[in-house]
Structure formats: structure tokens, C-alpha cells
Amino acid sequence: MREAMIEHREDLAREGLTEALRLRKHHNFALNEAVCPYDLAEKLGVRVYFDDSMPSMEGAYVNDGPPKIIVTSLRPIGRMAYSCAHEIGHHVFGHGSHIDEMMEKPDKAEKDPEEFLAEVFAGFLLMPKLAVNYGFSRRQWSCRDCTPEQAFVIAGWLGVGYTTLVNHMCHSLRLITFGKAKELCKVPVKAIKRDMVGKEWRENVFWVDRHWIGRPIDVQVGDIIIAEEGLGLEGNVAEPVSVGTVRQAFKGVRPGIGRLSADDGSWAAFVRVSRREYKGWGRYRHLEDPEHE
To answer: Which of 13, 21, 205, 244 ranks highest by number of CB atoms within 10 Å?
Structure first.
């Protein structure tokens, strides 16, 4: 009985991996690029809405009519993106409408085949092995021996949480040992951010360099972008800020879209700033907001 369950889970895992990679290829996302799940959902004809009225909810998929995904805006930014990817999984596999609650038992995904499939799909959609390897190797870092700061930088680029990436690298991609994952997970994110910026920082911190490819740089008002030397910001959505020991940083100050680019023209990426705890249709989350003028 137990062997049959394990075999079934392995089949589901392969199905989730295969569909995640197929979907990336179909929509022209290279396997070494980061993907924004909200943009992908729109490509699939699924509207994404953000809501702040249901504190216990992680996300929901509704298919009684035009399909839509609801993501709570009260969660950390990486968790929100992962929840969206999870709900995309329910959509592409033809699952019915449902709500994922924050307080559900941790082992639900272990027992419910649909939840397990959506969870595996989300992991490989956002963190395929080629993308993870690319993120480390292009910066001349080692996956196996990475530091907490390095894993944090890669997680930020991929748009997922720090521990989410570490656990995926260990349990799904087998890029690091269980011991290494345990070592990394012992380091709290607030300590990593403090070491990176030289002071305590409550909001999100993103480290951006010329190897950031695929998705735009999505941040919220109040977040910090640590940019390597030689990169400049176009637009008024973020402003230079002096933070601790960081040489060059920008802080998101108002919703809208700007552009971070290399001085020599060799690289560029859009910077999209949204209001913190935004509520509404995801497509409009970066529209300029008079309240922030």
C-alpha cells in the first residue's frame, strides 16, 4: 500500500514537472529565466485579483465562468507569487474551484493528489533546475556551498521566498544536501537583510545585477533595490537612498513603471512598483496612484 502511494506521488511529480516545463516553452520563457506568475496567468486568459479582506486565505482558483485567481495581498511578496503559481497549476490541470487556507494542515499537499500536483508544478514553474543553476553559476557562485546571502539573492530574482528556494534545491532539485539546507534555513531572513544593507530593514530587499533576466523587477512601495555599480534608474517610481553600507540603492516610492539599465547599454530591466497590500485586478497594480504624489 505504502509503495503504491509513493509510486503514485512520483508519477504526479513527473506530471507536474513536465507540465511546468511545457508551459514555459509554449509561452517562450527560457528555462534559465525567472518568470512572473501573474504575467503568465494573464497569457493563459486567467485574471489575477489581489484581496486583503481574507486574512486566513493563501489563494483561490475560481472556474465557474471566466477563470480567475485570487491571491491575498497580506502575505510576503514571494509567498504571494508562489500561491499564484500554485493556483495556475489547478487551472492547467483542470481542477475545480477551491480556496487554499493558511491554517490548513501542513500535510494536506502530501495527502491530497490535486494539492500535491499543484505544489510540485508551482515549484518547477518558478524554480526549474536550469534557472537555479544559471543564477548561481553566472555569478560564479556554487550551489552546493552557497552562503545565505547568495541564496537570498537568487530567491529574489526568481521571485520566491528564501526558505522556499532552499527547500526546493534540497528536496526537488537535489542540488544541496539536507544538512546544507538545514544550515541555510537556520539563518533568518531579517539577519540576511541586515547583513546586506548594514541595518535592520523591515521591507523587502532585492539585489539586482546584469544577470537578472526574464521577469521585470517587481517591488512594492518601501522596498529596496540594491543595484550593482554601473546601473542607473530611469523614471520616478524609485529614488536613490542611502542605506547602511550599500554603495547604490533605490527605494520604491510610488506605483508605476521605471527602468534600470547599464550605463554602457548592455543590459536593462523594467522596474514595476506596486502599492503595498494592493487590492484589485493584478493588471492594474502598477498604475500610477495619486495618493503617492
So the answer is: 205
Q: Domain 2-126 maps to which CATH number in 1.10.10.10, 2.60.40.1180, 2.40.50.140, 1.10.10.2910?
A: 1.10.10.2910
For residue range 20-50, list pLDDT tens digits in order. Answer: 999 999 999 999 999 999 999 999 999 999 9
What is the per-residue pLDDT across 62-90, written as a single tens digit (0 to 9) for each? 998 899 999 999 999 999 999 999 999 99
Residue type at 261? Answer: S
Q: Where are the domains of the chain?
A: 2-126, 132-187, 191-287
In the block, cell 527547500 appears at 167
User: Which CATH code is given to the segment(s) 191-287?
Assistant: 2.60.40
Is the Cβ–Cβ distance between 202 and 220 less than 8 Å? no
